[in-house]
Design a protein that fits this description.
This protein folds into 2 domains: 123 residues, Trypsin-like serine proteases (Thrombin, subunit H); 102 residues, Trypsin-like serine proteases (Thrombin, subunit H, Beta Barrel), CATH 2.40.10.10. The chain is 10% helix and 29% strand. It contains 3 helices and 13 strands; from the N terminus they run H-E-E-E-E-E-E-E-E-E-H-E-E-E-E-H. The protein has a 6-stranded antiparallel β-barrel. Bound molecules: 4-(aminomethyl)benzoic acid (4AZ). The site of 4-(aminomethyl)benzoic acid has 11 residues, from strand 12. GO terms for molecular function: serine-type endopeptidase activity. This is Peptidase S1 domain-containing protein.
């Protein structure tokens, strides 16, 4: 996650971003199946480009890689909880030789157990990498992690909502979260970071990459988000994590998952995400998520 304290004038977006909807008044009856709600956020306030607060992104998952039967574990990627059994991550986050993945739900500060509620760690029983994943182009950079047992939802552990099949978020502000690097080649934070980025039309994104001197092809399955002057972006370690927007009813839905980019927050090189609407049939065929 690249953060900046700089202010960006984006007239066509500033109005919609300065407004927030109230968190829906859904009393949190213990194990709930309600998606996209934030019981820990009292009013749906906007806090861009900074450390988040405990429980503010309850669908965020920390994907860790374990080797030598758990003797060595490292933080590898982000992920998104979509059902009690499944987490979306990036295909390029699949475990290395003789390694396995672990999913941590309800995490906030990775430096220690300082939180008011504990995180839940589950072993990943199965990694389902998209069959058409192409590591050369990052096409279909998606994987589903099947947890070895279902996670119990709680106020700090809530699945994200799926967008409508035909949803188009172009021009809207979205929030990306993760424990990835604070700048390209830089260090990592201890608390979950959040940053707001506008969703860019694919043709505009294609043009931006050309302007920056890159021949990269922006596929229809990709979604770009960021600024022409860079400064705010996802970065290494955020991969697989969520890019979300608030619905009119106050709940949050998934627009994309962090995939790749060239450097981080560099001018004319917005972050590239896997477009959730494009992958809904695939996600549903495996997990049953609507
Ligand atoms: C990465 O290396 C990565 N700026 C993820 C996202 C972005 C760049 C790199 C987007 O995982």
């Amino acid at each position: 996650m690249k953060l900046s304290h700089q202010f960006y004038a984006s007239p066509q977006l500033s109005d919609s971003t300065s407004r927030t909807l109230p968190t829906p008044n859904l009393a949190f009856h213990s194990p709930s199946t309600e998606c996209g709600v934030r019981p820990h956020v009292k009013s749906g306030r906007i806090v861009g480009g900074k450390g988040s607060t405990f429980g503010a992104f309850p669908w965020q998952v920390l994907v860790r890689e374990s080797t030598w039967l758990g003797l060595f574990t490292k933080n590898k990627c982000g992920g998104v909880l979509i059902t009690s059994r499944y987490v979306i991550t990036a295909a390029h986050c699949q475990p290395g030789f003789l390694a396995s993945l672990v999913a941590v739900m309800g995490e906030f500060d990775i430096s220690g157990d300082l939180e008011s509620k504990r995180s839940i760690t589950k072993n990943v029983k199965r990694v389902i990498v998209h069959r058409q994943y192409d590591p050369a182009t990052f096409e279909n950079d998606l994987a589903l992690l099947e947890l070895d047992s279902p996670v119990s939802f709680d106020t700090h552990i809530v699945p994200i909502c799926m967008p409508n099949d035909v949803a188009d978020f172009t021009g809207r502000m979205a929030t990306v979260t993760g424990w990835g690097r604070l700048k390209y080649g830089g260090g990592v934070p201890s608390v979950l970071q959040e940053v707001q980025v506008p969703i860019i039309e694919n043709s505009v994104c294609q043009e931006m990459f050309h302007t920056a001197g890159h021949n990269k092809k922006i596929l229809t399955s990709f979604l770009c988000a960021g600024y022409a002057n860079g400064q705010k972006d996802s970065c290494e370690g955020d991969s697989g994590g969520p890019l979300v927007l608030q619905r009119p009813d106050g709940r949050y839905e998934l627009a994309g998952t962090v995939s790749h980019g060239i450097k981080c927050a560099a001018p004319y090189l917005p972050g590239v995400y896997m477009r959730t609407t494009f992958y809904k049939p695939w996600l549903r065929s495996i997990t049953g998520v609507k």
